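Lay summary. Proteins are chains of building blocks that fold into shapes, and those shapes determine what they do. In this project we predict the shape from the chain. Here is one chain we studied, written as its sequence of building blocks.
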Amino acid sequence: MVTVSEVAKNKIIELRQKDGLADEYAIRVGVQGGGCSGLMYDLQFDATQQPTDHVVEDKGIKILVDRKSLLYLAGTELDFSDGLNGKGFQFKNPNASRTCGCGESFAV
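And here is the predicted shape, written in a compact code that computers can read:
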């Protein structure tokens, strides 16, 4: 299961409103090959649920994860930081054996 922190929830709602998207738009969280550690996170708004998607709702945010990505993301919390050490969404992934310095890629 993928969860969102309270800060991430607020930022997702803010961005969805800023982009003029309806509340039906979910967050699609995925994993793709690439990055300096081998795997990269993919995060986007999506209004289309695929038949093979794992769907979860946390703090009122609907999260879509494809079956392959779920293996890498189980137990992950999506957080958001706007501090001096980096701004943006962050993935707290207990499955990652290492991450790159920017936090956008990981290895298992």
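What the prediction tells us: The CA atoms of residues 45 and 58 lie 15 Å apart.
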